[in-house]
Every structure is written in C-alpha cells, then in structure tokens.
Design a protein that fits this description.
Strand content: 5-15%
CATH architecture of the largest domain: Beta Barrel
Number of domains: 3
CATH class of the largest domain: Mainly Beta
Shape: globular
Largest sheet: 8 strands, mixed, barrel
Number of strands: 15
Mean pLDDT: 89
Distance between the termini: 107 Å
CATH superfamily of the largest domain: L,D-transpeptidase catalytic domain-like
Oligomer: single chain
Length: about 550
C-alpha cells in the first residue's frame, strides 16, 4: 500500500471515530429513546387539571357562604356537594335538631373550640339555606371523626387525668371513609334521622341525662356562693342560709320556698333538703353542711352540665340492658349483680387508691376460689411487704407469707433464713411471695377470678370496717366486695353446690377451686354523673381526676 493510501485510510478511521463521539454527546430525542417521558407529562397535566377542578369546586362552595365562615373540611365538602349536584344534604328537620343537640354535648366538653364555632354559626339567624346546610355538613365531618377517635384511641381522654399535651387541644382530623360513606348512604335512602340518632350513645341513660342537661343549661343567672367556712347543724344561724335556700330551690331539691329566704336559721325542713342533696352527691346524708357539702353546693349548673355531657360520652362504653352480669361503678363504690335483667344483689365495694387505680375494663368470672391463697403482685411486694421483712424477718411468719421460687403448683419453698436480707435488691427480688389462707389473708374467704391483663379480680376481705366509710378508694387496684359471701353463694349454686357444700369447704384448711359453668360478665366502669331510678340527677366525687380533662 502506498503512503498516500495509508494516510487516506487513517483519515477515514479518525473521521468515523469523531462522528461516533459526537453522536454520544448530542442530546437524544425524548420520544424515541425515553418512551414514558411523554406519558409522565400527560399525567402531570391531567393532575393539574384535576387540581384546578378541585379548586373550582371549592370556590363554588365558598361562594355560597358569608365571608367570615371558615370551613374545616373544605376539600371533602366540595367533593360531597359536587356528587349531590350541589343540592342540600340536610332535608329532615328532626335530623337537624338531633344533630345540633349532639354537637352541643360535645362542644360543652371544650376539647376543641371548633365545635363551639360550628354552634355559633348555626345559631346565627342570618345564615340560612344552603349556607347553613354546608355548615351542618362541616360539623358532621368533625363529629364523625370525634366518634371514631373514641374507639380507635381507646377512649384516651375519657378515662385519664389531663396531660400537658392536652393544652394544645383535641385535634380534629379527617373522618374515616367508611363513616362518610355510611352518612351519604343514609342521605340517599332518606334515613338521615335514623342515622344521626344512631350516632348518639345507645344507652337508656342517655335521653334521661339529656333532659337534665337542658334543664341545667336553661339556668343562666349568676350562681349564689357560700362564703362562710363553718360547720352548720340544725338550729345554727349563718348568713349563708339564704343562699343555701336559693341553691336548693334552683336545683329543684326539697319543697323549697323563697318566701322566708332572708331567714338565717338552719331549719329542720332545710336540713331534710340538704340530706337529699348529700345523697345525690354520694355524701353521708347527715344534714351537716361541712366542707364537702359546701363545695358541692357552690358548683354551678354550667359546670354540672359539663359533667353530665362528659358522662354522656362515657355511656358509649358503659353496658346497657344487662341480662346477667356484674357492674361495678368505680367512683360510686357500688356493685350490682344482675340475673334475668333484674338486680339480684347490691353491694358496697372498695376500689383502688388514686395511686393504684382500678382500671376501666371488661372481663368475665370463670372461677371462684374458696379459702384463697394470695399471690402477692411484685409491685406490692417491693413497695409494701419486703421493706417490712428487711426490718423484721418474723413479719413473714406473723402474716402467713411464704417465699417461693415461682408461681407454679410445685414451686420450691425458700427458707427466709437462707436469703442475705442485708444485701438483697428489693427492685430485683428474684422470688415470689404467697400469703396462705388465714385470718390475715386480705382476700378473705372468696376470690372471683377473671382473666385480664391487669391481674384484677373481685374478692372478699376480713376488714369490714372500711365499708362504713363513704370514701372507699383504699385497695391496691382489685375490688373488695362487702357482700362477697352472698355473691359467692349465688354463683356457686349455679355450679351445683349447696349451702352445706359451701360451708364444708370453708371449714377445710385448704383452697378449693370451682369453675363456673358459664362465664359471668363483669364491667368495671367510671361514671361520675347519671340519673337514678327516682329521677334525681346523681353526681359523684371524681376520685381519679378523670373529669379534669374537660373542666
């Protein structure tokens, strides 16, 4: 090959190489080499058009409202009214009336100011027609979330003391889709009233409490106050007596007459009315106006209404129409045992101290123990018993305690003398304590077992004196039953035992376990306000400070 031909070949190769490099560096066609990029652009344009349609729906909805109205759920509402051809969603006056009443009951809790804002809008006579309809729907979405949050958040603020985070307010979120769908279905079936009614607590107490709530709210006058801090007995005189009469008159207690309102003598008739008032507040009905009676007399109808409203929501988790079962109202210190829908047994109870609360819970008795041993919970062993043992090792024998390697039936019994008590760690105590049956056993003659994660049960007690107190929050969480023997007899007879059988078991120096044929439902609930069978509104001291979350 000649030099000329060689140079031509080299030049051709270099040209081809340069061209390929240029091709690699040149931007490529998006449609040819990136087939999805065009689709992405189309999708983005469609999303933008949808956002514009949504903004248009929202503008159309807002145009039907006064300028000062701010909707909480604008996006959801615009979609709902678009689907309904922008026609009203509220056609039934009874449904509207019922819903506004339920909204009022929630607004009284003051968990979020938005509920009160909705009520203010709805009470404005200048807001009518479709504008009022939209506000009702906005409030309904907030109310639907409120109801769903009570269950999904485990009744978080109904049964707990207030937390610092509560100061930020109860946050209203979007209602669950299934709740919104159910509401819309009711509208299309013309069943709005029945649907709204179903949102209220389904409990016989609800309507009774609602009636009393409206009575309290109708009393808007300034509330008289008792200012003297003296104990008043029959025949005593005080400048507070005039206000006592006014308070009882306005509460409808006793046959109070204001004809002698200026008298300062604590008369017999007034004493009888105070006794009724004390009974309705769970106080000793002694007729003496002391500190606690005075404090309750000073509580205004406005506060009483809020207490009723809170407990009306608690009815959602309070059993109704019981056929067979045991109900324990914790702040009332009371137990009712039902058979065939009727109260078969009433008993006073002792519940947990404020620092060892009896939990709000549901379970069922599946076993009754006669002459029970007591397996001491680790927390109680650490806090109450072991400090006594370290001071005096004879404390174990004096109170019939045994130290075990475990809770099992064949657990090894540990000799207390083999333990180095001077160097033992109470916090990490490796053994278990059991108190055997005997006069000092805190479980008494009967224990009613019911499975639950709190290790809570009902039981007898040898210390009957505490049942004479009106404040009976004194246990470590379990429920002590004054009439445990009567309750045990009723339940044990259903297992086939006779009174003679039960007596023989009690005489034996051992524990007897008897399973129930059917589980007996048990509800431990917390109501500080309700309406009694005689129509009197009852209020109780909030022993665990759960009411403070809304007051």
């Amino acid at each position: 090959m000649s030099i000329k031909n060689l140079l031509q070949s080299m030049l051709l190769c270099w040209s081809l190489y340069s061209f390929s490099v240029i091709l690699m560096l040149t931007p490529q066609s998006s449609s040819a080499d990136h087939p999805f990029k065009g689709i992405d652009s189309i999708d983005e344009r469609e999303r933008e058009r949808e956002r514009e349609r949504e903004r248009e729906r929202e503008r159309a909805l807002l145009s039907q409202l006064p300028e000062q109205i701010k909707l909480y759920s604008l996006s959801t509402l615009s979609e709902l009214y678009e689907k309904n051809a922008r026609e009203p969603l509220w056609q039934d006056p009874l449904a509207i009336q019922d819903f506004e009443q339920q909204l009022l009951e929630v607004a009284l809790l003051k968990i979020n100011p938005q509920f009160s804002t909705w009520l203010e809008y709805l009470s404005d006579p200048n807001i009518t027609g479709i504008a009022r309809d939209i506000i009702l729907s906005d409030a309904m979405l907030g109310y639907l979330y409120f109801i769903s949050s009570l269950t999904s958040e485990e009744k978080v603020w109904l049964y707990r003391p207030p937390l610092n985070s509560d100061r930020q307010g109860y946050q209203i979120m979007r209602a669950p889709e299934n709740k919104i769908t159910s509401w819309q279905e009711a509208i299309h079936k013309n069943e709005t009233y029945h649907y709204v009614n179903s949102l209220a607590p389904q409990h016989p107490q609800y309507r009774k409490m609602q009636t009393e709530l409206l009575k309290l709210l109708s009393d808007n006058s300034p509330w008289p106050k008792l200012t003297e801090r003296v104990y008043l007995r029959e025949g005593y005189s005080s400048k507070d007596i005039s206000n006592v009469k006014k308070i009882l008159y306005r509460l409808g207690i006793g046959n109070m007459s204001l004809t002698d309102v200026d008298s300062q003598v604590y008369s017999h008739d007034l004493v009888m009315a105070i006794k009724q008032f004390q009974k309705n507040r769970g106080l000793p009905a002694d007729g003496i106006i002391g500190i606690r009676t005075r404090n309750w007399l000073n509580v205004s109808p406005k506060i009483l209404a809020r207490l009723l409203a809170l407990n009306m929501q608690r009815l959602r988790f309070t059993p109704a129409d019981i056929q067979t079962g045991i109900l324990v109202n914790i702040p009332d210190y009371s137990l009712n045992y039902y058979e065939e829908g009727k109260i078969r047994l009433f008993s006073k109870v002792i519940v947990g101290r404020p620092d060892r609360k009896t939990p709000v819970m549901q379970s069922a008795i599946n076993q009754i123990v006669i002459n029970p041993d007591w397996n001491v919970p680790h927390s109680l062993a650490r806090e109450d018993i072991l400090p006594q043992v370290i001071k005096n090792i004879d404390y174990l024998q004096e109170h019939n305690y045994r130290i075990l390697s475990s809770w099992s039936q064949n657990a090894e019994v540990i000799d207390p003398e083999s333990i180095d008590w001077e160097n033992i760690s109470i916090e990490n105590f490796p053994y278990y304590l059991r108190q055997t049956l005997g006069p000092n056993n805190p479980l008494g003659h009967y224990k009613f077992n019911m499975p639950n994660r709190y290790s809570i049960f009902l039981h007898d007690t040898p210390n009957k004196a505490m049942f004479q107190r009106y404040r009976r929050a004194g246990s470590s969480g379990c429920v002590r039953v004054q009439k445990a023997s009567e309750l045990a007899r009723l339940l044990l007879k259903k297992t086939g035992l006779t009174d003679a059988d039960i007596l023989n078991f009690l005489k034996e120096n051992k524990s007897t376990y008897r399973n129930t044929r059917k589980r007996i439902p048990v509800w431990l609930y917390y109501l500080t306000a309700w309406v009694s069978e005689d129509g009197a509104t009852q209020f109780r001291t909030d022993i665990y400070h759960y009411d403070q979350s809304v007051l």
